[in-house]
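User: These chains co-purify. Model them together.
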Amino acid sequence: MSLASKKVRYGIVAVVIVAIIVGISYGYVIPTLTPKPTVKVGLVWPVTGAQALIGRDQVNAFTLVVDEVNNAGGIKSLGGSKIELVVGDTKGDPKTGAAEAERLITETKVHVLVGSYGSAVTATTSEVAERYGVPFLNPDSTSPSLHVRGFKWFFRTTPHDELLVKNMVDFVVDLGKKEGKSFKKIAIVYENTLWGTDSAKVIKEYAPKLGFEIVLDMAYPANAVDLSSEVLKLKATPHDVLMQASYLSDAILFTRTFKTQGYWPKLWVANDAGHIHPDYVGTLGKDAYFVFSREVFCADLGAGKDAIKKANDAFRAKYQKDMDGTMARSYTAATLLVDILERAGSLKPDDIRKALIATDWSEPKVSMPWKGIKFDENGQNVRGLGIITELIDGKWRTIWPFEVATTTYVLSEKPPWA
Amino acid sequence: MVAFQMSQRRLLFIILVAVALLLPAVVTPFILHVAIMVGLFAYLGSAWNLGCGYTGKLSWGHSAFMGLGAYASTALYMFYAVTPWIGAIAGMIIAAAFGTLVGVICFRLGLKGHYFVIATIALAEILRVTFINWPVVGGAWGLLMPIVRDSLYYFQFHSSRLGYYYIILAMLVAILYLERRIIKSKLGYYFIAIKDDEDMAESLGINAFKYKVIATAISAALTAFGGTFYAQYVLYISPDTVMAVGVSTEILMGAVVGGMATIGGPVVGAAIIHPIMELTRAYVGGRGLDYVVAGLLTVGVAVLRPHGVIGWVEKTFDAFASYLPEVARS
Amino acid sequence: MAQVIVSSILLGGIYALVAVGFNLIYGVMDVINCAQADMMMIAMYVTYWSFALYGVHPLLAIFINIPLFFTIGFFAQKLIIDRLLGAPQFIQAVATIGMGYVIQNMALLVWKEDYRMILNPYTESTLRFTGINLSVPLLVSYIGSLAVVAALYVFLKKTDLGVAIRATSESREAAALMGINVKRVYAIVFGVGVACAGIAGAFISTFYYTYPMVGTAFLLKMFVVVVVGGCGDVLASVAGGLTIGLAEGVGAFLLGPSWKEAIYQSVFLLVLALRPQGIFGGGK
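Assistant: Joint model of the three components:
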């Protein structure tokens, strides 16, 4: 053994030891040395993948509010701290969402997490937040199973499917009374991933209790190449109401296939998502008219409520389109978050949580057609409401509950392309 | 001379093992997560390798076995409060049964080469669609695992992911050891004979059909255990997340890039692909760049080193080893 | 019910169109090109942008796509695929999957994830015929795919180049001995195969929406169609497409769409069991 190789050997050992020491200090020491003056908020949404359009829109809506607040001087009770948004991409996948949530919490050290659209993804991301004791704000996932897990840190502003899907059925009942018609037979068509299946489940549980008969229960594979068989099955089954839960691409393909196959339901109520997305009417134009949808928001309600008008005008000014329910809920969650941070006056998780629990927003304050925001012991907002909208003349109009309707509905016997 | 070199390699190996054991102490939880994922796919890739790499019968439907394992243990836990450890065994048995079925169908039909590959995809897809339409196990929704306190018995750890890390490390070591034993045994000899020339092996009296089915069943059972681990780690499973073709691709990619029919191959492959993908996604931002990188890597490896990068890695390993002092003369 | 069958047949024709190029490449070069469907996706984008930016009718775009994609395929073969030929077939397949990933995600990076659809009177039109509704774009694409298959068949059987290609697919060595430039043949074949994907893309964009991941929707089906019809046989693509289209359409109508995928996969397995070489397959 030569002297040179002895030096090399000791050199390597020394390097390895130093590397380990540096590694430990990087992990533990450095973070505590640098102070953090900004409020870090993690947005965990699908910004790539099949739901990327929706994820991006939500990020935009949220950013709109935060930019406005930052420009006006930040969070006053925190000495003018600005809010910094960090986006984690879930790709619409629960495992990835959880990994991103964990990364945002442990590496970026966010104080609050917001997300995550798809209910399965929210299930895992909020679980990560719960583990670390980070407040999790959920503006947009509607599965009824999310708030009953006994979580301390989970807070959901949106009403969930038990309420929203019931709206669909209640609407049909009301419509039947008003028209003096009977809409007894329901055909349910839904995409066969968790969201569609969930929506269908609620309809199947609730509708029969009100005297409806489910004559067709048809799940179809999402992103199907061709939907002729599905539409033909609809044509072959006599029914009064079509209730549909589809994402954007399927919604578009279905409507086109309706047109090709000459199918038009007597009454067609969609469950949000694909049908309410601006690109639905954007792509189909006139052919998209006359579909009803359960919704949580409609731009035309701005006429009656300032908070809604202000929100939609701001969004429209920047993005040249009206908000839909998902964007609006993201916007509203942002306004709520600002309010919470102001009231908490601190970035400690417990203080933020206390502020969340103490939330007591009344109707005029919330930029949604809700009675307000107040969380029950499960973290669920109990003042949320749903509406039914209809696509009339290229714009979505609120038509139910009839007391808040901005216009009368149109029940068209002929399809819009006739 | 030989003893001299072996102790150097052994020493380097021991150092690496020590690093692996101490890793959690010096990394952030996110890096730990990446390490756990690497461990999981190294494990799954090895399980795949056992059934496919050595026999030359390359399945692209292994997600079916993973899914079966995940569903079996999760369902038993959620509906009958059976600890996932026992549930995992049930899962392994079910997967082995399904694997045997797959093997019998495919090999009885004499399917070879790409016919076999597509057939495995078909069978996995049928299983996936069946689960989507089966409300008892949650249908398309899948199963959301209820969270309990940290518990080895119930296979969940929350205050830190450390438990998962050491378990997957143990699983990996176990499967590598098992692999080594099988390869050096008569069974392994039969597998490789079948891969090299099946007709020749038959003429030597080896019942190719029987051993191909055995290989599939063993591989299936081991993959299923990985499925249980996944379920306990992510705490949510659905047909699209554990039984899809994309998952099968993820499983075999590591083995292919690293080197099929070698013990270290799947480990090396997983260790290369997964960290690059996770870190690309996290730090360079979404937009699918991580898949671009994975794709480029795969093409690059196929062009430059079709038998996997394990050859390179071994050379590097030896180079490092030569710097180490001898620990003992033989 | 007649409507169901007709719609299913039309659908089957489309699958055949996607599979034709793949079959050609596989038949001659023994290469499994998993990126075929993704090339089709790029073709759909080219067609879409020609329409959106320059008002080119999608059917006319076919004449843009053919030379464009032939060139792409030709050079792709020379630069990449050729290097892969030494590797085991499975590795080749995995590598082409890698290529597919790259293509898909580069498309995602550049064009984002929005769905794009070509809307003009042509793509909206329907033919109503003795109680059966036919979507015109679908019908035209069906006829188009038959035409492509026929053209390829004639090309392979009657032209000198076609004969050279068939000779090479029988045996590289023999072909080389006869003075055929095997490397060039391979490049041409790959070019033609990808050009077929280009044609398919143009046709499909007349009735389906374009997005970066659309390739994956077609890929699995394409494999099944190829095997059911007969690997490597261009004509067989039609048979395979028809079978799978019918299995899917009729099966979905009778058993429920949620089982669609399981149904055609089962038919596939049945064919494998009863007639492994495919309905028309004779060779590989």
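The mean pLDDT of chain B is 83.
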